What we know:
This protein is an alpha/beta fold. It is built from twelve helices and eleven strands. Strand 1 (50-51) and strand 2 form a beta hairpin.
Amino acid sequence: MQLDSAQLTxxxxxxxxxxxDAAAAALGVTPSAISQRVKALEDRVGTTxxxxxxxxxxxPTGQRLAKHAEDVALLEARALGVxxxxxxxxxxxxxxxxxxxxxxxxxxxxxxxxxxxxxIDDQDTSADWLRRGEVSAAVTxxxxxxxxxxxxxxxxxxxxxTASPAYVERWFxxxxxxxxxxxxxxxTFNRKDQLQxxxxxxxxGQRLTPPSHHLPSSxxxxxxxxxxxxxxxxxxxxxxxxxxxxxxxxxxxxxxxxVPLYWQVARIMAPALxxxxxxxxxxxxxxxxxxxx
Length: 293
C-alpha cells in the first residue's frame, strides 16, 4: 500500500505537537488542510489514527504510522544530508529512567543533528516498544533481540541497596535480616520495578513483600532514601557521593546488584543510527561495569 507522504507528515506532526492547530502552524498550512490529510489517510488505511482530545493522541496504528514517517525522514536526511535551514529528523527511543538519569544524555548530546523523543520504561520491558513497532531503538535489560533488531551488550549498571543512617538505626537495629526486611518500608519506582525484589531474593532467599512507597523518579528515589522515607536500589553513579559523605549507607556492602544493559536498534535503521550507536557505546564504556560482575 502506497501512502501519501504529506498525509503521514501531518499525522506525525499532530501526535508530536498534540493538536491539529499546532501541526498546521508547524507545517505552514491551515487546520482544515491538516484535518483533510488525516481523514484521507484514515480512509486509506481503513481505521482511526488520531484520538481527538487535549492533547490529541494516536491509536496503536496511528503511532506506528507516525513513527514510520519519522523513520523515513531520518533515513532521507542521512542519505541526502540535512541542510542548516531544515528541521532535524526525529528519533523515538525507549530508555529506562535510571539510564537517562545517569549516563545517556551526554551520548545524545554527541548527535546535534537529530531530535529525540524519549519513552521512559523499565529495563525489563523497554524492548516491548520495539516489538510493537513504536520506537526505532531502545536501551533494555533484555539480551534477546526483538524481531528485526540488532543487539549490542553495553555493560552493567551497578545498584546499591541504600538507606539513611537514621533509617538503618530505626529499622535494622537487629541486623538486615529477612525478618527486619519484611517490615521495613521499601521504595519502588513503579509496579514494573523488580530490582528490590531481586536484591531481597539474593539477600534472604525469600520472596518478601515489604510495605512499599511508589516513587517514579530516579533523583526522587535517592532523595527519599536520603530523607529516610524507605530503602531502595539506587544506581551507583547517583549515590556514590552520598555514600562517601555518610548521607546514605549500604544495607550490604558485599551485595551490589549489577543490571546488564543492551542497545537494541531496528536493523533497517542501524546504518542511519551508526553515529548514535557509537556515542552510546562510548558513554556506556565509561559509566557501566564491563566484563564479569
